[in-house]
Design a protein that fits this description.
alpha+beta; three-stranded antiparallel sheet; 1 helix; 14% helix
Amino acid sequence: MPASTFYTEQGEGVKRLLKLRYDVIGLVENRVGPSFSDGSGFKELIIFARKRGGGSAGFVGGLDTETGGDLLL
């Protein structure tokens, strides 16, 4: 997920969804380069979260503003 999600107005919906429905366990960044995707060109994060009422940890990711990828919850 682009790191800009957390400091731009366009990311408000994602932030609201995470706050309301998920317990965020952690954020991971690539310390070697800005992204995990080859040639992405922007800072990316991986988010580990647990859906409230669920019980198992999950992966939130795959949001790619350049290619129009989906957000997986």
